[in-house]
Amino acid sequence: MTDGHIAAAAGRLWQAWETGVPAAPVRDLIGAGDVAAAYRVQETNTRRWEAQGRRIAGRKIGLTARAVQRQLGVDQPDYGILFADCEVPSGEEVAAGRVLQPKVEAEVAFVIAAPLTRSDLTMVELLGAIAYALPAIEVVGSRIANWDIRIADTIADNASSGLHVLGQAPRPIADFDVGLCGMVMLRNGEPISTGAGAACLGSPLNATLWLARTMAAAGRPLAAGDVVLSGALGPMVAVAPGDVVEARINRLGAVSVGFAAG
Amino acid sequence: MTELERLAETIDEAARRARPVPQFSITRPLSVAEGYAVQTLAIGRRLGRGDRRAGLKMGFTSRAKQVQMGLRDLICGRLTDGMRIADNGTIALTDYIHPRAEPEIAYLVRERMAGHLSALEAMNAIAGVAPAIEIIDSRYADFRFDAGDVLADNTSAAGFVVGRWHAPATDVANLGLVLAINGRAREVGSTAAILGDPARALVAAARMAAELGEALLPGDIVLAGAATAAVELAAGDHVEARFETLGSVGVRVRA
Fold first, then answer.
1. pTM
2. How far apart are the C-alpha atoms of A217 and B148, rounded to whole Å?
3. Which CATH number do you get for residue A120?
């Protein structure tokens, strides 16, 4: 993989972000299954955004459902960067066109209390380093036309990250059943996705442990105050202008977001 | 014997012998009313053999499933005590045609219910709520059927396992759950998949019982509908449904 290919892929995705016009996949440049190359593309654009003054607010974990991993032919999750300007307060509306080809997922978000710099982090250390949990809706999007993605395309495209919406009543992780909490997501009042904590790699905490170790090894360790969107608890659902989506996670709380009409 | 009585005999014998039959819809499509009539006649045959009524089960409790089957309502079937399986009991694969397991919520009726009730009235008329597994088994070849077929076949009801009872006021609207086979998660979901809240299925059960000219009676069990897709069973399987706050319920399958 030459630096030129990485730069070309990063440039193609950057262009789609800037223009709001979805691009062709980047797998022709970096290979459909080359995960390492894909993260180099992602990192290239992350640095470019940081240089522009965007602030990192946390990470998202994707591909946490075994079925989705099988679809993409991988046996592990992936991650993307959450930027501070991608946070939408619960109950507010997302302007039309702000996310390309939006879909929504209901997730448990964790807020990290202390830096997690060890790539051999233990679950006990992780449990002690979580300040609190929040219910979250992740609005995912794809800068690649028609969501025509392979594993390298989505990772290069910041793990198809879009916006994140967080609940506003922090709960200690001891106050709900992280591994078995029920989830229902309503679109315009109609249940459209149901699931539970276990759908996310057996538990959202398992996914978060993977992330913390992976980020430490990658040189971007989780820092105090970072938000972790730990992965979908049920099927992802497409949204259209005018929709209002609410996610309820049992004993953790509710969070909602609207999508402006036209 | 009337035509519907003959169909009732066919479907009853298919269940009794665990031998599949062709769909009635191939030769004699049944309306919803006829489907329920065959169901009532077939259950009458079971009761005539000494089985006792045990309650009702609700089906098609997701909107998507209703639309797929061309219906605008839930469906219900009858439970009899012969379908009862002890928690962590064993069933024999040979007693079924192609059984599947679904995680459900069970209600225990405390006071008679029939007709249109508010959710509050229904909740005040139950004695408890429990985690449950329903064993479904279509008596039709390839587990395929239309609405009339499945109604005549007692909505594929074949068995039920109920776990520990909890207080009637227990919140079961959005409980996470895992259906595991031999310890491995096969389905993950929430009880919210049952009409958004299983209590709505209980209200519907009281309404549909009245529509059938019956009532929910003290001691009846109401199975509120499936919280996830059904999982096919094989000999040697240990099926366990683990529910947030309610605990587990299980059943073993032998050859």
1. 0.95
2. 59
3. 3.90.850.10
